[in-house]
Amino acid sequence: MELSDANLQTLTEYLKKTLDPDPAIRRPAEKFLESVEGSQNYPLLLLTLLEKSQENVIKVCASVTFKNYIKRNWRIVGILVEDEPNKICESDRIAIKANIVPLMLSSPEQIQKQLSDAISIIGREDFPQKWPDLLTEMVNRFQSGDFHVINGVLRTAHSLFKRYRHEFKSNELWTEIKLVLDAFALPLTNLFKATIELCSTHANDASALKVLFSSLILIAKLFYSLNFQDLPEFFEDNMETWMTNFHTLLTLDNKLLQTDDEEEAGLLELLKSQICDNAALYAQKYDEEFQPYLPRFVTAIWNLLVTTGQEVKYDLLVSNAIQFLASVCERPHYKHLFEDQNTLTSICEKVIVPNMEFRAADEEAFEDNSEEYIRRDLEGSDIDTRRRAACDLVRGLCKFFEGPVTGIFSGYVNSMLQEYAKNPSVNWKHKDAAIYLVTSLASKAQTQKHGITQANELVNLTEFFVNHIQPDLKSASVNEFPVLKADGIKYIMIFRNQVPKEQLLISIPLLINHLQAESIVVHTYAAHALERLFTMRGTNNTTLITAAEMAPFVEVLLTNLFKALTLPGSSENEYIMKAIMRSFSLLQESIIPYIPSVITQLTQKLLAVSKNPSKPHFNHYMFESICLSIRITCKANPDAVGSFEEALFMVFTEILQNDVQEFIPYVFQVMSLLLEMHKNEIPSSYMALFPHLLQPVLWERTGNIPPLVRLLQAYLERGANTIASAAADKIPGLLGVFQKLIASKANDHQGFYLLNSIIEHMPPESVDQYRKQIFILLFQRLQNSKTTKFIKSFLVFINLYCIKYGALALQEIFDSIQPKMFGMVLEKIIIPEIQKVSGQVEKKICAVGITKILTECPPMMDTEYTKLWTPLLQALIGLFELPEDDTVPDEEHFIDIEDAPGYQTAFSQLAFAGKKEHDPVGQMVNNPRIHLAQSLHKLSTACPGRVPSMLSTSLNAEALQYLQGYLQAASVTLL
Amino acid sequence: NEHSERMKKFKNKGKDAAALRRQRVEVSIELRKTKKDEQILKRRSISLSLMEETLPLGEDKRNEITQMSLEEIVEAVNGSNTELQLQATQATRRMLSRQKDPPINQIIELGIIPRLVEFLNHADQAPLQFEAAWALTNIASGTSDHTKAVVEGGAIPAFISLLSSPHMHISEQSVWALGNIAGDGPLYRDALINCNVIPPLLALVSPVTPVGFLRNITWTLSNLCRNKNPYPPLDAVKKMLPVLICLMQHEDKEIISDSCYLTDGSNDRIQIVVDTGILPRLVQLMARPELIVMTPALRAIGNVVTGTDEQTQAAIDAGVLAVLPSLLRHVKPTIQKEAAWTLSNIAAGPCQQIQQLITCRLLPPLVELLDKGDFKAQKEAVWAVANFTTGGTVEQVVELIQSGVLKPLLNLLLAKDSKTILVILDTISNLFLAAEKLGETERLCLLVEELDGLEKIEALQTHDNNMVYRAALNIIEKYFS
Fold it and tell me: Is B368 on the interface with A (CB under 8 A)?
């Protein structure tokens, strides 16, 4: 592409089209740009446009396109990778680097930002070696006195240097930093000093101050990056300059810089926040050198906290500042800065208490954005909030001053509660703060699963609970003071391990009652608290709260839970659904009377949400609840399975027909569960579905594979004979599925699950004609891509085959594929790899299978295979006695780590649809070691003398010792 | 026992235990100021000149005479009047001995260095020899360029021959000059060694050598042993080692201090030091209260335990583990750091050595350091814990957790250092592996959550460093979801 007006015109038109809302116009334009971006001069055309175009939109659009182009193409991925050619020719690269800095600096801010990003992307690759004059070019601009230009330079420097904050120390990195320091540190320091001076000369000029403060923020950020890896000599020598000025800036205020916005932080706040970070960096990493300055910063930051208001815009500053104090007060040698009683009192009074107050913004979130409120309050995603920072400070102070701090706060808690008592409707926020204070004071360690696990003993939690929490929850109106109700429920939740059980039992009806509260937060908390209480463990690993204790409340609990799902805003409330699931699981057969109504409501819900599934957790717990209903009911009355099928199949059919992808794996799981409930032959309704399950499209979605395999396994378990007799023509389809799965490294274990079920359940004659083909397929995969996972599954399979069809059959089928194949499999796979098999059942299958090969396979005794007999026995003893070999070759580390195979289809998505671990060997062999001893004994009786002689010649001593142990335990001897 | 015997077959598979040991220098670029308490590699001789300035008034005459301009100096030095030569040389030396801003560059620019070197050979004029030697010593004490000027003036052979001067003060001054040259770096160090500096230098050490002189000799010897890239020739070190070992027994703390600066280096060098049987003495010196003694002794032992398991065992047998606790609790951050570094390398050993570390009660100070130490020391302590969890048996790891390591370790996930964070995350993974073997995964999960570790690990999933973020994600996915 030439740098011609015509090309500029063309490009302008296409850029304009990329902004079109109509995809029919937009997409082809985007495609066109992509197709020409490899041409020479393309980036230069863009740069020309963003500089000279008449239309502002085109300028901006060109700058964004340019930035994205650089991002995609500047980095040369690898000269060796052929399909990733270098799209930017060398002359364009040189031209870009020569022009981009001045261009960036002379552009309006919107474009400057894009170009600055582009520079840092280029810099990441080319700086410093291939762009040696970048730094000098930038530093020279500091002299310009034009702060628009200076800020452009600073912003670019910031994006170039900020990676120093997270990269690992290395020679390369530190060489670069040293270079940057040499060129940049002094000019930056001078600029810093000059800017601060300008701030005082322009103290009355609002617009000048804004620009200058933007510079200071960037300078403070650069300070952070440049000082992050280690304390540079230059900054150590100039610490006085930097720290004195930082300190002054922390204490600075200027009316002109205050903003009216309540939410968005202003320049002053951003600068002070960054300074807090800088001080924290020095305090943490360079304590020795920073010590002389630290007390001053503590005082300044503390004063800052005392004088900063409650508005949201100060949140980041306040939480950074509090976190700074929290980290300092934990350090033994700064203890003295805090230990004075007056200091402590004033920190508690002026820093901690005000930041624990419930603010207008919190109240708003409580009412209008309850989901966010719950997430922050309940799930601890409150890392940057003021309350959280204040809590951390309380905990930090408690490290050295637990007694005094608790004393001071007890006084506050009491006075706040008194305030509340005087006039609850006006002063309810005081009580809220009191509860929050008690919570943070009392909790030393907390987990989601158990709530508070360690409490400060100075607070009497039960007393507080009885006197101040229960009364609120007992009040006649569930809708009065919703925030206090939520506080009270949360108190139960987090102190559930400290409050005695009888108090919890008193609370349960109160919680059930609050499921009816209108406030989303309140009824959600009630549901969540019940769910947590129901999972608590008592002695003997049973639940703490028993079904018998819950008996009086079953009906009202279920009614209120389902009614809560109809309250506005909670139709897909995951906490309520989870509470439903947990209640079912706790109450067990006491829910049976309510099942007809329950299952109707659940299916209606299912039908409704299947139109547009949007809450994955809600959906998950809903399916879990359905599974529980089925299990509990059918356990008492197996025949009830029919009525569930009647209620559910209609919805399931709709889900399958409408291809609701999120739900299909669940549907398969529920169907598996239902099918397994049948005691007799498989019902015809299932058989009608069978051919559809083998359709290739279903198997293309990876999420379907585990539940579908599980469902097919259920078919084979229950209806192998029906399939053999009535659907024999479907067997090739079934094997087709197996063949498809086995070919994939990610899904091969699923293929083996299916194959194992076929071998275990199908009548042998029905699969006879396919057996050899199956083995050939396995060998092909073994040859093409052998992985540890495949080997493990393969070993389990051949041993299962051996158990089912006999050792001789195994030997024959191998040798029929190729002579002496059996010996090769023994020598190259079974003996060296058996140690890798994992899982109890899997190991047992292998042990029994190998025992059969050793003792029931004549060719092992009298052919050339005989030399493998002792090594095989030795490997078997290793399997019994040595730890599992879980080494994985390096190149396999990145294959689907997440799906670890087991003999069972381990798709545990639905816990309550899972089946018990299936042991195909089962009662046949209880103790595989004894079984080995007995089998050897039998063998030795058949050919006396042979066995002991084979043992004595080549079995190693340690293994022999173990074997003797087995023989003794089985009370047999070898002849 | 049998069980652990069998476990051993599978422990640390694929991991090279030696790779855990970390040599002192990871990066050769330094951003920091050079360490203040490191031994000084070059010294200017000013203390003597101060003494001279306070000489009795009666000798003031000499001072007056020596006030000469630079031009006069050049003329006199290059002239043939021996009296003037002496005066000019003395004037030069006095200028160079000035407390503040000695005019080294100007003197070099005068071009008189070759003449001064020549004076060194005037055996019949001891005062001139001495003044020239002193002046050159002070020039060589400056920057590398300054030292270079002296060497290129041909001073090395002259000074070496002066070592055998009958006048002790001249020979002492030569020792000093040679120390400055050797301290410049490996190039001149080896140049000296190649000129056979060692035998005459060692010959000066005798039971009657005065302490002051002995200090200088020791310092020069230590400079001949120091610096790397390359290390000093092995046979040179072997020659000096016996004498240094002797000097280490001296009661003067400066002599001890310098004699402890044994060579850093590869395992074969460590072996030479170990073979001298000096480790017990070094350990003894580590326990001394004086910083200048303790520091180099600790460094030397720290270097030894970067070696093989056997070499590390020799240090353990010498009693290093008994001394480390108090060093880990030392008030000086640098000592804490060196001690923790030493400990981390012992923890990188086989489980028998880890067991000794437990038996000698090193875990409590380690945990304390992790909790309250200076950040530099905390970083090393993190490595110590990481190595412990990599090589320790399950039982040992349990012991580690019981000693309370988890809380401070998890707190350090807030550290502003990506590498430290990554090492902690790896350590947590190791702990989980051990917990899995004991079937205690759930308990460890709870413990980590209780100690606010979970939320810290969760927060690290948004860390800008890719490896950190992946390690955090991996732990969350594996154990907390």
Answer: no
Asked whether residue B22 is assigned to any structural domain, the reply reads: no
∠B205-B209-B210 over CA atoms, to 5°?
Answer: 140
**Chain B residues whose beta carbon lies within 8 Å of the beta carbon of residue A288:** 333, 374
Of A169, A232, A450, the CB nearest to B446: A450
Strand-pairing partners, residue A452, are A446
Q: Are B338 and B378 in contact (CB under 8 A)?
A: no
Cβ A206 vs Cβ A213: under 8 Å? no
Residues B91 and B239 in one domain: yes
In whole angstroms, give the CA distance from residue A27 to residue A445.
55
pLDDT at residue A467, rounded to an integer: 92
**CATH code assigned at B396:** 1.25.10.10
Q: What is the pTM of this model?
A: 0.73
**Mean pLDDT throughout A401-409?**
85
Higher pLDDT among residues B131 and A920, named by residue: B131
Torsion, CA A750, CA A751, CA A752, CA A753, rounded to 10: 50
> Which run of H or E residues covers position A708?
helix A705-726
Q: Does residue B373 share a domain with residue B290? A: yes
- A284 interfaces chain B, CB cutoff of 8 Å: yes
Residue B47 domain-assigned? Answer: no
Asked if residue B345 and residue B389 are part of one domain, the reply reads yes
Percent of chain B residues topping a pLDDT of 70: 86
- Does the residue B40 lie in any domain? no
Lowest mean pLDDT among A376-385, A834-843, A891-900: A891-900
| Residue B192 lies inside a defined structural domain of this protein | yes
Which residues does chain B have within 8 Å of residue A898's beta carbon, measured at their own beta carbons?
477
CB contacts < 8 Å between A and B, how many?
93
Q: How confident is the model at residue A554 (pLDDT cuts 50, 70, 90)?
A: very high
More confident site: A888 or A613: A613
Q: Which residues of A touch B28 (CB under 8 A)?
A: 171
**Among candidate residues A290, A375, A353, A358, the one with its CA nearest the CA of residue A324:** A290
Q: Does A332 touch chain B (CB under 8 A)?
A: yes
In this prediction, residue A909 carries a pLDDT of: 59
Characterize A468-494 residue by residue with b for buried, 16 or more Cβ atoms within 10 angstroms of its Cβ, and e for exposed.
bbbebbebeebeebbbbbbbbbbbbbb
Question: Within 10 Å of residue A566's Cβ, how many Cβ atoms?
Answer: 9
Check whether residue B319 and residue B432 sit in a common domain: no
Give me the domain span that covers residue B150.
Answer: 69-259
* Rounded CA separation A244/A193 (Å): 11
Model ipTM value: 0.80
Share of chain A above pLDDT 90, in %: 55
pLDDT in tens, A826-854: 999 999 999 999 888 899 999 999 999 99
What's the N-to-C CA distance of chain A in angstroms? 91
Give the chain A residue nearest B451 (alpha carbons): A445
Q: Is B19 on the interface with A (CB under 8 A)?
A: no
Q: Using an 8 Å Cβ cutoff, are A261 and A291 in contact?
A: no
Residues of A in contact with B455 (CB under 8 A): 380, 383
| DSSP 8-state symbol, A918 | P
pLDDT higher than 80, residue A541:
no
Q: Which of residues 770-809 of A touch B (CB under 8 A)?
A: none
The 10 Å Cβ neighbour count of residue A703 is 13
- Whether A288 sits inside 8 A of B333 (CB atoms) is yes
Which chain B positions have a beta carbon within 8 Å of A327's beta carbon? 414
Are B10 and A447 inside 8 Å of each other by CB?
no
With CB atoms and an 8 Å threshold, state whether B6 touches A883: yes
Same-domain pairing of B83 and B215: yes
Omega cis (within 30) before B166: no
Q: Is a pLDDT exceeding 90 seen at residue A192?
A: yes
Residues B123 and B237 in one domain: yes
Rounded-to-integer distance, Cα B366 and Cα B405, Å = 8
pLDDT average, residue stretch A565-572: 94
